[in-house]
Amino acid sequence: MEKRVVFRGRWLPFALIAPQIAIILVFFYWPAIQALVQSVFIQDAFGGSMEFVGLENFEVLFADELYLDSFRITAVFSVAVASIGLVTSLVLAYFADRAIRGAVAFRTMLIIPYAVAPAIVGVLWMFLFNPTLGIVAHWLRGFGIDWNHVLDGRQAMILVIIAAVWKQISYNFIFFLAGLQSIPKSLIEAAALDGAGAWRTFRSVIFPLLSPTTFFLLVINIVYAFFDTFAIIDAATEGGPAKATEILVYKVFYDGFKALDIGSSAAQSVVLMAIVLMLTFVQFRFIERRVQY
């Protein structure tokens, strides 16, 4: 028998969802509309005067080699963060799901990094890899690697990727572990009786059943790499050296709040929003077809 909730007051359902609607309107739709409006204007640093220029901000933007290079940097960074983070988290969750001694303590330790603020993560890894005082940099010199991310752009990119992956591993780990624990053990036992080894069982039984979780985390990690890593990059490298780690979201901040080019910054935010919407659409339109619910 189907059960339905009946509200006594006609306006009660609307009152219950009103706070969420207000938050979405104030913190998402209103800033998005403001960015769209400001992207077609040129204004001074203090917003005192505005001049309508149409699509000129976008034309100047796509003629800027530094902005186009930030697309490449963002692509490398987001792919590395999402792929390394998902694979590492899945491996850790797979072993944490096994009945081993100290499994509870092991799982707790893997969840702790999620409680660390992104800016603290950036500062933490910056000190660990500090060319003069960092313990990791000292170890690397013992292997003949001259580490100095302050001068080397590739090393700076490696640093922010490691920091971003470390911050997100806990989030991915929680979902993968929950997904693994929801898989019926009878299916794994049946695969073992059929003679399937550990790798074959994982590839043919476990991973297909984890596809909804993996798809969800893929979308979340792409959005995380595009937006939520801003504080990590700002604290660790500030987009340097020589713009080597200046991803799109950091360039929006730099041009808007440091260079005080409001029109260009707004145009960049519109482009970034369009890219994320397009990627999300592609993921749901094509990749979701391979998900087995």
From TrEMBL:
<comment type="subunit">
    <text>The complex is composed of two ATP-binding proteins (UgpC), two transmembrane proteins (UgpA and UgpE) and a solute-binding protein (UgpB).</text>
</comment>
<keyword id="KW-1003">Cell membrane</keyword>
<keyword id="KW-1133">Transmembrane helix</keyword>
<feature type="transmembrane region" description="Helical">
    <location>
        <begin position="73"/>
        <end position="96"/>
    </location>
</feature>
<feature type="transmembrane region" description="Helical">
    <location>
        <begin position="156"/>
        <end position="178"/>
    </location>
</feature>
<dbReference type="InterPro" id="IPR035906">
    <property type="entry name" value="MetI-like_sf"/>
</dbReference>
<feature type="domain" description="ABC transmembrane type-1">
    <location>
        <begin position="71"/>
        <end position="283"/>
    </location>
</feature>
<feature type="transmembrane region" description="Helical">
    <location>
        <begin position="205"/>
        <end position="227"/>
    </location>
</feature>
<keyword id="KW-0997">Cell inner membrane</keyword>
<feature type="transmembrane region" description="Helical">
    <location>
        <begin position="12"/>
        <end position="30"/>
    </location>
</feature>
<keyword id="KW-0813">Transport</keyword>
<dbReference type="InterPro" id="IPR000515">
    <property type="entry name" value="MetI-like"/>
</dbReference>
<keyword id="KW-0472">Membrane</keyword>
<dbReference type="GO" id="GO:0055085">
    <property type="term" value="P:transmembrane transport"/>
</dbReference>
<feature type="transmembrane region" description="Helical">
    <location>
        <begin position="266"/>
        <end position="287"/>
    </location>
</feature>
<feature type="transmembrane region" description="Helical">
    <location>
        <begin position="108"/>
        <end position="129"/>
    </location>
</feature>
<dbReference type="GO" id="GO:0005886">
    <property type="term" value="C:plasma membrane"/>
</dbReference>
<keyword id="KW-0812">Transmembrane</keyword>
<comment type="similarity">
    <text>Belongs to the binding-protein-dependent transport system permease family.</text>
</comment>
<protein>
    <recommendedName>
        <fullName>sn-glycerol-3-phosphate transport system permease protein UgpA</fullName>
    </recommendedName>
</protein>
<dbReference type="InterPro" id="IPR050809">
    <property type="entry name" value="UgpAE/MalFG_permease"/>
</dbReference>
<dbReference type="Pfam" id="PF00528">
    <property type="entry name" value="BPD_transp_1"/>
</dbReference>
